[in-house]
Amino acid sequence: MTERNNQPVFRNQVINKKELTKMISWAFTNHGTARTAQMADKLKDLGFKFATRAGVSISVDDLQVPATKRKLLEAAEETIRETEERYIRGEITEVERFQKVIDTWNGTNEELKDEVVRNFKMNNPLNSVYMMAFSGARGNISQVRQLVGMRGLMANPQGEIIDLPIKTNFREGLTVTEYIISSYGARKGLVDTALRTADSGYLTRRLVDVSQDVIIREVDCGTQRGIAVRSMRDGDRVLIPLKNRLLGRVAAQDVVHPETGEVIIPRNQSISDELAELVGKANVEEVVARSPLTCEAARSVCQQCYGWSLAHAKMVDIGEAVGIIAAQSIGEPGTHLTMRTFHTGGVFTGEMARQERAGFDGVIRYPKRLRVRPFRTRHGEDAFVVDSADSGLKIALEGADGQQQTFSVAQGATLLVRDGQKIKTGQILAEVPITGRSRKTTEKAAKDVASDIAGEVRFADLVPEEKKDRQGNTTRIAQRGGLLWILSGEVYNLPPGAEPVVKNGDRIEADGVLAETKLITEHGGIVRLPQEVEGSKGGREVEIITASVLL
């Protein structure tokens, strides 16, 4: 394959599925369909030839469990143990305990997944499981994780997450308990796949029924309206840059360079690869593009609002049945989505906040302009949430030998350390929400703290303040945090004349003696204790013989 100026193209790199997609797209854009088909044919022959010669197979020995797995599990179990102790002491609620357990196991599972990938890359990059999963040929990281990492958290038949994870993988083999927990998810996956395949096909038919009349009937409806197109983001990460979202659309307004004011794309101009690249280089934040949603053509869509037919990389033809194309484009992934449960076997995967960890021992330093307020995390830990809207603020970790590590803290980030606190390597310093934006609205919700035992209430460092509202209802609010003790115990009624053998405030063990009483008899005579029979615990009766006759 050669470029247009007849310079041969040489790509000296590992070509996986993603790179292959890019290469075919490049060939299609630069050389048209016929040449691309030829290249794809040659690539297919090349692939078959070398797949045959490589002889890639799979055996039990190809499943290599990373050596660090044991340490990761031990660290997670230690964290869970501490959480349980905090729960028993009453420092955290049941919900906070559950959330901490779930997040701990999810975090461990993610770390183990990264360790699996690192282990393959460092020790055996030609491992057949690694090659199959990461080239995009067969399988994915989620399945490899279950084979050589850990299966992780599963859901029960009610859809609730079971806080007992499956710590083993299929290479090591599951225990009986783990197998029973696991088999529910696997069975459910198979049943759901069978049921949902029919639903997916039905969805496609309904979509076609609704949209079959949408056809390109005119060249330009003459509308001034359009939709704002921006880059697609997930927090700080850019998922799809703006230039990739513009290809084939028609500009509804002039696109202007933000610094020079020069018009990059005039209104009603279709956006090609080159123009999209110019928009990307100019760092334009937003482009108003024409869309079928804002098209003003009666009973149809016009050419200008639809844009390119991506199959031919040129403006769509008049008479094209774009409604049916759209219906099939939405319906087709539906069949693949039904298969997802089947492949992962009901394993629970949850998103977490991004955590910033310390790279070395040191002391934490806040910047002077940083404004924080106290905050209780979802795990019941005391922390600070960043109120400063200044995006350039960074907290610094200073090491003993002049080392320094800095972290950006955006508004809404949670800081788990105080200014001047000593930090150990690997300690979590901050959590940044995955969405990047914290919720501005706060919802009020009443959460009851219930007592497990009956007893007498005592306040320790807790100062309640009474407030009256307009309706005259009195509420008592704690002015500051403190402890609330419940004194619980058994009540023993002592009979008259009993002598206590304990003093007020003494500690007593179980089965300890509290008091002694005297048994007084009205009759005089001989005391006889009952005879002990072997195996019996002895009677509790004392006989007093008042008279006896000797014959």
From TrEMBL:
Coiled-coil segments on the chain, per record: 73-115
UniProt keyword annotations, A-Z: Coiled coil, DNA-directed RNA polymerase, Metal-binding, Nucleotidyltransferase, Transcription, Transferase, Zinc
Domain of life: Bacteria
GO biological process: DNA-templated transcription
EC number(s) on file: 2.7.7.6
Keyword Nucleotide-binding: no
This protein's name: DNA-directed RNA polymerase subunit beta''
Originating species: Oscillatoriales cyanobacterium SpSt-402
Organismal lineage: Bacteria, Bacillati, Cyanobacteriota, Cyanophyceae, Oscillatoriophycideae
